[in-house]
Amino acid sequence: MMSRASQATTVSSFGTPDQIKSSIRHALPFAFAGSDAVEASRFREKYSGLMDFASQVSKSPLQRETTRYQTNHLYLSLIFAGVVYFRPQTMSVKPLGELTVDIGFLVLFSILVVGVGAIFLVKALLDYQSNQFQITKNYSIRDYRDVILIGMVKGNIDRYYWDTIFDAIQETRQSHDDALSRALGSPSPSPSKHISMTDIVKLDIDDLQKTPEFRDMIAERRQFLDGVTAELRKDQQSFTAQVEGIFSERGPYTAPRDEFDFRPLDLDTQNRVREVFSRTLEKWIAARGALAREQLRTTSGGSVDRARAEAAVATLARAKRVKTITTALEVIMPLSFAAAVLTISWIGLLAFK
User: Fold this and answer.
1) CA atoms within 13 A of residue 254's CA, in its CB half-sphere
2) Region 167-176: what's the mean pLDDT?
3) Separation between Cα atoms, residue 106 and residue 108, nearest integer Å
4) In degrees to the nearest 10, what's the CA dihedral of 241, 242, 246, 247?
5) CA triplet 261, 267, 268: central angle to 5 degrees?
6) Do 353 and 102 touch, CB atoms closer than 8 A?
7) Are the CB atoms for 218 and 157 separated by under 8 Å?
8) pLDDT(193) > 80
9) Which band of pLDDT confidence, cut at 50, 70 and 90, is reported for residue 247?
10) Is the alpha carbon torsion for 168, 173, 178, 183 positive or negative?
11) 212-250 and 141-184 helices cross at what angle (nearest 10)?
12) What is the largest CA-CA distance in the chain?
């Protein structure tokens, strides 16, 4: 069975502009709209894993024993505030019986509140560390990122080969411009510079081909490129041979030097060159222009891979905000409440002693 690239280079694939466009678009699908370089099944699998990861991140990691210390810490803080506010003479403690409420008692009670709070803080930190380890063990964000990156590299590979074909067609256009200038006896125009993706994103195709994910893909693209350049070279050689025949028939020709030189322009040779161009190379220029406009519309519409990456970043950012709020409610606020109770209570005791 022939591969996608070999199917695109069969006979008559490059006879008309539409056939050229169809062949290039079929062989390099990720360079244009309508094809997704990211495998849908793998993306759904990794995105589902990302959602589970975000759900685990946003959940409370506190274990039941840690929650018990949290409750005791708040309970003891409220009891301490009540003792300071109501100032009972004695207080009944089951294991110890009746205890006199004095400064020594309040100091020991404060130490108890601080001690329970310290134990709660340490256990909360351990729970967070254990929870983070379990999340990292079960899912790595790199899995999702790698799926997106592989898709982006595949898209860059197709755009690399499309730019190579674009530049090869541009060279044939330069042959046409040179022939027209020669027909009119004027200097050849300087070649135009095409700023391609390969000028911005440097791809080491030989190095990428060593990677299993891209080996077959690059082999197919190279086979297709060889087929395209062979057909393009054949048409360019035909154009050059026919144009040389036209110039041989015309013989020597001197163009007018300026607007005061009334020797006629050789428009007949110019028209014959254009006719040869329309029969040989014009289809390539037309196809290149149509595909370039299609790619421009695709680029202006935004990158799907970028949107996926931004969605992942936004999801993780929301999960992080939820975790921050959860941490504030479960750990920071109880500790802050107890610290405020102890501080205000002791300030009141010392002030009104």
Assistant:
1) 5
2) 86
3) 5
4) -20
5) 135
6) no
7) yes
8) no
9) confident
10) positive
11) 10
12) 128
303-308 — which CB contacts under 8 Å span 24+ positions? 304/36, 304/38, 305/37, 305/38, 305/148, 305/151, 305/152, 305/155, 308/38, 308/43, 308/148
State pTM to two decimals: 0.61
| Residue 142: CB atoms within 10 Å | 9
DSSP 3-state of 270: helix
CA distance 293 to 25: 13
Task: Supply 14's token pair.
Answer: 């490059």
Q: How far apart are CA 297 and CA 34, in angstroms?
A: 12
3-state helix, strand, coil in the chain (%, to 5): 75, 0, 20
Q: Count the Cβ atoms, other than its own, within 10 Å of residue 127.
A: 19
Kindly state the tokens that stand for 105: 């008692």
Phi and psi at 196, nearest 5°, equal -100, 175
195 vs 319 pLDDT, higher one: 319
First to last CA, the chain: 96
Give the Cα separation of 62 and 334 in Å (integer).
14
What residues contact residue 295 under an 8 Å CB cut-off, 6+ apart? Answer: 31, 32, 159, 162
Which residue, among 176, 283, 175, 160, has the nearest Cα to 224 in the 3D structure? 160
What are the residue ranges of helices labelled H in 185-211? 197-200, 205-208
More confident residue, 316 or 283: 283
Q: Which amino acid is at 66?
A: T
Q: What are phi and psi of 149, to 5 degrees?
A: -65, -40
Please, which residues have CB within 8 angstroms of residue 42's CB and are 6 or more apart in sequence? Answer: 147
If you ran DSSP here, which 8-state letter would residue 1 be given?
-
Q: Is residue 135 scored above 80 in pLDDT?
A: no
